[in-house]
Amino acid sequence: MESIEHQVTLKSEVVHKATLAKLAAPSLSLLSTEQKNTALLLMADALVAETSSILIANAEDLGRGRANGINSSLLDRLALNEQRIIDMAEGLRQVVELQDPIGDVLETIDRPNGLHIVKQRVPIGVIGIIYEARPNVTVDAAGLCLKSGNAVVLRGGSSALYSNRRIVEVLHEALSRSDVAADAIQLIEDPDRSSVDQMLKLNGLLDVLIPRGGHSLIQNVVKNASVPVIETGAGICHTYVDESADFKMALQIAINAKVQRPSVCNSMETLLMHEKFAALHLAAIAEQFIANNVELRGNEKARALVRSINEASAEDWDTEYNDYILNIRIVSSLDEALQHIQQHSTKHSDCIVTENAEHAVRFLNEVDAAAVYHNASTRFTDGFEFGFGAEIGISTQKLHARGPMGLPALTSTKYRVSGNGQIRG
Amino acid sequence: MESIEHQVTLKSEVVHKATLAKLAAPSLSLLSTEQKNTALLLMADALVAETSSILIANAEDLGRGRANGINSSLLDRLALNEQRIIDMAEGLRQVVELQDPIGDVLETIDRPNGLHIVKQRVPIGVIGIIYEARPNVTVDAAGLCLKSGNAVVLRGGSSALYSNRRIVEVLHEALSRSDVAADAIQLIEDPDRSSVDQMLKLNGLLDVLIPRGGHSLIQNVVKNASVPVIETGAGICHTYVDESADFKMALQIAINAKVQRPSVCNSMETLLMHEKFAALHLAAIAEQFIANNVELRGNEKARALVRSINEASAEDWDTEYNDYILNIRIVSSLDEALQHIQQHSTKHSDCIVTENAEHAVRFLNEVDAAAVYHNASTRFTDGFEFGFGAEIGISTQKLHARGPMGLPALTSTKYRVSGNGQIRG
């Protein structure tokens, strides 16, 4: 009996708050850009003004985290300080500068019967965000959802609960001084995993779920949600160095793609190299990777050229290391490289380095990925680097949005049809 | 043990055919418009040339259906004849005329660092279609997927198995004389429902599922699929007749929205009417509905005006009748109408009939639906009526596509990034 009561209580919070968000959504869709921007600036100011209370709440999370023995990298992501709060506020001010996508006319159609049809951007409605320890995601997601006219139901990691709760209190207080309904931002406080499970099935209250975090979090959402999901994350990215590649360019791009920030999804996991280029340059390139503390794993052809390359296992080609480890496969043709990518790519970002224009075009045409590169590092797959001014995530699915997502990815459309009495014959 | 073997056998067909489709997909994405059109015309000719063998297969389905006692409307949807086969072929020829969306450039971005970014339409990949008895959907879906460069895995109703099998054999034979891989079109023949269940979980092989059919088929897919879904179908559509509406226009639009084809999703289920308009005109309008064999159910205010209106139950306002039944609610204001729609609309198509421009704008802004109408019948929500020249379905979700879906709804995008050695700092 106890467990049933427990379930009912849990259900109440998620359903209750999602319902509040849904009830707030219609009013959000009607806000002017100015009303939304005013609210965002109030939110930014409030965060800075409330720095000390937020840091106190964060200290509670950190203390609890240390007591529970969570690891140092998680503690680092969880930890706030004055500068990080200033950065969160600055992020909201940047969202103010973004163009408001709501109301944009995407298409107008005039039909022979006189119907005038306008396809216009509208908010999606209620967006569920499921994420992990970083409290800055709370602010970031709330800001982007608000600017795009959406209500948001946030479910952050339980380790950041006190921080998130205080942050959302501060945001609510700011909204109460604006034209925006405070119910637009909801935080699920229930730390039990079942609150996530409930969100996954909340069709009718949530319009979309965006998971942000590690592989297992995202896969849990993708596999179990009946609410539509925008999948983000996995990136096994390839760089193929063609026979005709410029040595210096190839070296710089490969090193940048691997070591500039190995932990992120757009970093390279596998370097493919034409055998003729490899015969001349693999040794020098391998040396640079090793100097950057990268462990190299390769196929037979690679190991025959450079002895310090370890043997790659079958699974290695399908592993997203997010670490200082790199697979190297020497291939005998562009076709072999394309085939490898087709088999092993997660369709995130793949690159060819070549001076051969025909090969470049073939690669850009034939590789099926959110972003395909010629002579540039895969690390550029990013909303800011693409000039969107924001990034909700990088979609690795093919529906709705693919690749870096700016504000338009948080919108839907509506057809407005005007007539003068038309009926269908 | 037997059941496990059974499962393995079942799994084999779905996984095997989806794998074949996935392997065919890359080559499809590279076909020219001409190559695709040539294949479509060969398919159209082959269907007509093979009319008799298709009708024989169809006769087997009909015989089996009659033996199993399936109802006459299902038999009608299942039945083919010479004209229906000509119509299917004609449908393919119309797809030839459609503009090919693949390769369309949606956006170009030039970054300060010299990166040149082009956002281009590409096929989605492999599309799964789950549908019911109509064999024409087999041809229709195969044609639209092919034109948009996608492979398709078809799972039609088991009652149409022989018809679908013969049709797909004919299409395969036509493709074998074209540049298009015959594996682009796959038919799941296993009549067991578990083959549908398997498709729902085929992440990595299927990129999207589009269910086409009745409520329970669609809800099964929406609730249980881990593959992304485009939800189609449900339509509880409203027409609100405002105080200032023109009587004749309101009558024509309301009658058209209900009785021109009651069985479809864009027909009206609920008529909302301002009390001042109703006092003058409800009697005449009700009379017309009754003359068209429509059963009327209403709220107290409606029944006080017209005695032949039955009492509407609470559930009636949330029921998609798809039949000659209409709910009528008399309201005292536009706000009451908007509130009713917000509570009961399935966000498909809703209409206001008014001569008040301000009310029209409020309605078009505030009603959250795929299509919102001013002074025109909701029956126009249709890919052909919108001028798309095709319709894969009418999306009732907010992600990816909303409202009538033409060929672009079967596409994704890819960012092509060209550089000259850019690395990220």
TrEMBL record, chains A, B:
Record domain Aldehyde dehydrogenase: where: 13-289
Keyword NADP applies: yes
Pfam families (alphabetical): Aldedh (PF00171)
Main location: cytoplasm
Keyword DNA damage applies: no
Cellular location(s): Cytoplasm
Catalytic reactions of this protein: L-glutamate 5-semialdehyde + phosphate + NADP(+) = L-glutamyl 5-phosphate + NADPH + H(+)
Keywords carried by this UniProt record: Amino-acid biosynthesis, Cytoplasm, NADP, Oxidoreductase, Proline biosynthesis
Pathway: Amino-acid biosynthesis; L-proline biosynthesis; L-glutamate 5-semialdehyde from L-glutamate: step 2/2
Enzyme Commission (EC) number: 1.2.1.41
GO terms assigned for molecular function: glutamate-5-semialdehyde dehydrogenase activity
Protein's job: Catalyzes the NADPH-dependent reduction of L-glutamate 5-phosphate into L-glutamate 5-semialdehyde and phosphate. The product spontaneously undergoes cyclization to form 1-pyrroline-5-carboxylate.
Similarity remark: Belongs to the gamma-glutamyl phosphate reductase family.
HAMAP family linked: ProA
PANTHER family the record matches: DELTA-1-PYRROLINE-5-CARBOXYLATE SYNTHASE (PTHR11063:SF8), GLUTAMATE SEMIALDEHYDE DEHYDROGENASE (PTHR11063)
Designated name of the protein: Gamma-glutamyl phosphate reductase
Biological source species: Paenibacillus agricola
Gene expressing this chain: proA
